[in-house]
Amino acid sequence: MYYRGTVEGAANTESGSRVFVYEVVGLRQSEETDQTNYQIRNSGSVFIKVPYSRMNQEMRRITRLGGRIVSIQPVSVLQQTNGKATSAESAYEGNGNATPVNAEPPVQQQPQKNETKGKTMTQAKAKKDAHADVPVNLYRPNAPYIGKCISNEALVGENGIGIVQHLKFDLSGGNLRYIEGQSIGIIPPGVDKNGKPEKLRLYSIASTRHGDDVDDKTVSLCVRQLEYKHPETGETVYGVCSTYLCNLKPGDDVKITGPVGKEMLLPADEDANVIMMATGTGIAPMRAYLWRMFKDAEKAANPEYQFKGFSWLIFGVPTTPNILYKEELEEMQAKYPDNFRLTYAISREQKNPQGGRMYIQDRVAEHADELWSLIKNEKTHTYICGLRGMEDGIDAALSAAAAKEGVNWSDYQKEIKKAGRWHVETY
């Protein structure tokens, strides 16, 4: 059944080329929608007509209602394909006004299940036999490398939210090698609730293959202490491995496995464009990329790789003190303004165009046309790293930009994934 609301009414006052149809899945009934007259479908696709001027508002509302936009098409394209667009279904009857998001959930509000089950990161699989020369699993859980903590430094500034540490480990006593974009496993001491030895957790490496000291003897991590309220007892719970790491002292031993991962590797092309989108500790691999591209000592250590392309980091954090590696990032931007662009989304300090908080998807929407233009370039690689779920808002924003040219973003994204130019690592 097709529900006609004010959104469509507004759309019909626009020219056909400025009206779009969102295909949405996953809309759910929630505490918020219980208080409205929206008619929410629990499964399958729903279709919403939206005028160009309201695209960002509708994206935010759909995300808030738990939906995911899988495609955006101009009405004119659908009319050419299907004869008419009125076969689409609307998700609700509403007033067409997106309510600004005025509240942000507390950082690390919900438990990350994998903190107690082992690996904490999901990684898309790389194509078979790709990067066959990349070191993988040099140390396994049954025979980990025993490294030592060299340093453990706080990354969150005064009045910031949470605890995030930069840890550096000594690798000089073994053969643990890695390259930018890989991860290592950490096995915390002790046993789990079932009395079995704790399992490893994966963490993105935050240093280049040469390490922070550019001597091939260290590896670094960027770790946030996981903290959340137990949903039943209300008790504060701390992540096992993240708490262990954040409390390490110089000289402490640590069990390390790996390295693993081939999905997030940088292209060898020195003229590539590199788009990076990160939230929180998702900055870790991006820091490694940027050091390899722009740090003087790194450039001297890599005569075979001298980056000449363009890189753009869009970094989402809650407050300014939570901008991890802020001085490093801004120093590189100042030194290489033609090659490195830095954009922050500071949710609790900046406002989006609708007056709500500024999240990374809002920044992507703000620059969607520029990003889309870059992404179409065959030399462009895009990297996304951070909390699971951040991809949906990014996809929605890029869908809108692609739709202006009659391109289905979902289909195009599959093509660039297949070509090895779209890289995602979330946890």
Question: What can you tell me about this protein's structure?
Answer:
Helix content is 25%, strand content 24%. Helix 3 runs antiparallel to helix 12, helix 10 packs parallel to helix 12 and helix 11 crosses helix 12. 42% of the residues are buried. It has 3 domains: 77 residues, no CATH class; 147 residues, Elongation Factor Tu (Ef-tu), domain 3, CATH 2.40.30.10; 154 residues, Rossmann fold. The chain is an alpha+beta fold and 427 residues long. Helix 9 links the parallel strand 14 and strand 15. It is built from 13 helices and 17 strands. The protein has a 6-stranded mixed β-sheet, with helices on both faces. The chain has a 6-stranded antiparallel β-sheet with strand order 8-7-12-5-6-9.
Overview features:
Elongation Factor Tu (Ef-tu), domain 3, 6-stranded mixed β-sheet, 3 domains, 25% helix, Rossmann fold, single chain, 17 strands, 427 residues, alpha+beta, 6-stranded antiparallel β-sheet
Structural class: alpha+beta
Separation, N- and C-terminal Cα atoms: 38 Å
Number of helices: 13
Regions with little confidence, pLDDT below 50 for 5+ residues = 1-17, 29-43, 77-130
* Share of residues in strands: 15-25%
How would a crystallographer describe the biggest sheet?
6 strands, mixed
Counting structural domains, the number is 3
Tell me the series of helices and strands, N- to C-terminal. HEHEHEHHEEEEEEEEHEEHHEHEHHEHHE
| CATH architectural category of the largest domain | 3-Layer(aba) Sandwich
How many DSSP E strands? 17
CATH superfamily of the largest domain: Nucleotide-binding domain of ferredoxin-NADP reductase (FNR) module
